[in-house]
Write a structure and sequence with these properties.
about 60 residues; mainly alpha; about 0% strand
Length: about 60
């Protein structure tokens, strides 16, 4: 767990790609659920943020 936060602080690719992937997955789950309207409303923004973030952090060093 410590190396994860250390990787985040040192702008390493692995931990930031994991955060971006979790955001993408969270956005898709929010999009597919039929119960909470605010989750559906913000699902596209969350998915888009995760996708753009993944593209950016793929240029970070290992």
């Amino acid at each position: 767990m410590s190396s994860f936060f250390n990787g985040l602080l040192r702008l390493r690719r692995g931990p930031w790609e994991m955060v971006a992937t979790i955001l993408i997955a969270l956005g898709v789950v929010m999009l597919m659920q039929p119960f909470v309207l605010w989750a559906y409303t913000y699902s596209f923004i969350i998915t888009l943020t995760g996708t753009v973030m993944f593209i950016i952090v793929s240029h970070f060093p290992e």
